[in-house]
Design brief:
The protein is α/β, with parallel strands linked by helices. The protein has a domain of 156 residues: P-loop containing nucleotide triphosphate hydrolases (Rossmann fold), CATH 3.40.50. The chain is 33% helix and 25% strand. It has 7 helices and 10 strands. The strands form 2 sheets. Strands 6-7-8-3-9-10 form a 6-stranded mixed β-sheet, with helices on both faces. A 4-stranded antiparallel β-sheet has the order 2-1-4-5, covered by helices on one side. Strand 7, helix 6 and strand 8 form a beta-alpha-beta unit. Helix 3 packs parallel to helix 5. The longest helix has 15 residues. The two termini are 26 Å apart. The structure holds adenosine-5'-diphosphate (ADP) and magnesium ion. Magnesium ion binds next to helix 1.
């Protein structure tokens, strides 16, 4: 059984003459241990799709099943609780807290779920080390490069050991080489673990590292094209 099933998702924003159909009848399934790249041009509905899978946005029609749980039916409190437990999100502009160090940004995750334990501190430092940031743990975001900030944001999203990682344009502010490095780190973390990741990107070079590629154009899944 798939970890994630996206079934016939449609999303329209607004109504009447200003109505925009951001997604139309999008379906796919995703197994554990996989990195899926959702590839599409700007405005094709990628962020909308991630927001719906994250439970941050309600679809107009369709279903999202995570481990067979119909998460699209969650109210906002249940959705938030589900996210805390099962989902890691890396937003496009990383959303790091500017006055906290890299390690403190990671520790916000356990902080919001209760209290910070010694294991949490150890986990934060281990994740930073895994992402090549051991020497940067006490630096604030302003003291980090763009690639380092992206890696901190990814490490933070991994703090709650999510089953599903949702990553929005992780390389949009990076050159190709640094972007690929970030994607490779993400992939090597996911492989061999019981988790899965959706990375959306407009950059076909970043999709090369993925296990599967879903192309979307104007809110629809494009017919399978050769890569
Ligand atoms: N909150 C919103 N209200 C109205 N239209 C929106 C909103 N968010 C996104 N859209 C529109 O939906 C379409 C898909 O947007 P988005 O999901 O952000 O695409 P992408 O992430 O691929 O650039 C675009 O036409 C965008 O203008
Ligand atoms: Mg977007």
């Amino acid at each position: 059984m798939s970890l994630l099933a996206v079934r016939n998702i449609t999303k329209t924003y607004g109504s009447g003459r200003t109505q925009v159909t951001a997604l139309e009848d999008v379906s796919f399934e995703l197994d554990r241990g996989k990195l899926l790249a959702v590839l599409g041009p700007s405005g094709s509905g990628k962020t909308t799709l991630l927001s719906i899978v994250a439970g941050l946005l309600r679809p107009t029609a369709g279903e999202i099943l995570i481990d067979d749980e119909p998460v699209h039916l969650h109210g906002s409190r249940a959705a938030a609780a589900f996210r805390r437990e099962h989902v890691g999100i890396v937003f496009q502009d990383h959303h790091l807290v500017p006055y906290l160090s890299a390690a403190e940004n990671l520790l916000l995750v356990p902080h919001f779920s209760g209290r910070i334990t010694r294991e949490d501190r150890e986990r934060a430092l281990a994740l930073l080390a895994e992402f090549g940031l051991a020497e940067r743990a006490s630096h604030t975001p302003a003291e980090l490069s763009g690639g380092e900030r992206q890696r901190v944001a990814i490490a933070r999203a991994l703090m709650n050991s999510p089953e599903i990682m949702l990553v929005d344009e992780p390389t949009s502010n990076l050159d190709t080489e640094r972007g690929k490095h970030v994607v490779d780190l993400l992939r090597s973390h996911i492989h061999g673990r019981d988790m899965t990741c959706i990375m959306v990107t407009h950059d076909a070079r970043m999709a090369e590292a993925a296990d599967d590629v879903l192309r979307i154009v104007d809110g629809r899944v494009a017919a399978d094209l050769p890569a």
